[in-house]
Amino acid sequence: MVIFLGWRNDPEISQYLSTPSVEPDELENWFGKGEGDTSATYMGIETATGQLIGYIGLREIDWTQRSAMLVIVIGEKNWWNQGLGEDAVNTLLDYAFSSLSLQKVSLSVLPFNTRAIRCYEKAGFRRVGFFGEYYFRQGRLWRPIHMEITADQFRVARRIKG
């Protein structure tokens, strides 16, 4: 948990996140309440050599509506812009739609996080509006962009990519 806490509390990373810093007990709650909790699932993101560089997951899983919210953090900044986030998003979406039988995955992204927005759009996410809350970052208020992708949209995006 220590490495995750360090990433989450790094100002260069946390500026892109809804909560700019967290306490250890808050982080433990985010990663699930333990055995039997089916409202969230998280996975580590590793390089080909096995170095842990971030995490990705689904939270707020609604089994009735077959939907969830995607979260991702690439905590090792020297791995930014290397395509591992895009690989992780595609892998998680494949898992969400094929193994978990979800029908929709949503996410929230701040408008100045253009690297993440490009990654999500490459995976097939579409902008559908803005969330109602505001976050104060970089000296001003920002409304997060709401993006989502359905299982069918993901399958089409995968076919187009080859």
Give the topology, please:
Elements: H1 2-8, H2 11-14, H3 24-30, E1 41-46, E2 52-62, E3 67-74, H4 84-99, E4 104-109, H5 114-123, E5 126-130, E6 135-137, E7 140-142, E8 145-150, H6 151-161
Parallel strand pairs: 3-4
Antiparallel strand pairs: 1-2, 2-3, 4-8, 5-8, 6-7
Task: Write up this protein.
The longest helix is centred in the middle third of the chain and has 16 residues. The protein has one domain: Aminopeptidase (3-Layer(aba) Sandwich), CATH 3.40.630. It has six helices and eight strands; from the N terminus they run H-H-H-E-E-E-H-E-H-E-E-E-E-H. The strands form two sheets. Strands 1-2-3-4-8-5 form a six-stranded mixed beta sheet, with helices on both faces. Helix 4 packs across helix 5. It is an alpha+beta fold and 162 residues long.
**Can you tell me the CATH topology?**
Aminopeptidase
Quick one: biggest sheet?
A: 6 strands, mixed
The low-pLDDT segments are none
**Count of alpha/pi helices:** 6
Name the CATH superfamily classification.
Gcn5-related N-acetyltransferase (GNAT)
User: Globular, elongated, flat, extended or rod-shaped: what is the shape?
Assistant: globular
Give the beta-strand count: 8
Alpha-carbon distance between the two ends: 37 Å
H-E string: HHHEEEHEHEEEEH
CATH structural class: Alpha Beta
Assign the structural class, choosing from mainly alpha, mainly beta, alpha/beta, alpha+beta, or little secondary structure. Answer: alpha+beta
Mean residue pLDDT: 86
What proportion of the residues form beta strands (DSSP E)? 25-35%
Number of domains: 1
- The strands making up the biggest β-sheet line up spatially as 1-2-3-4-8-5
Q: Under the CATH scheme, which architecture would be assigned?
A: 3-Layer(aba) Sandwich
Rg, Å, rounded: 15 Å
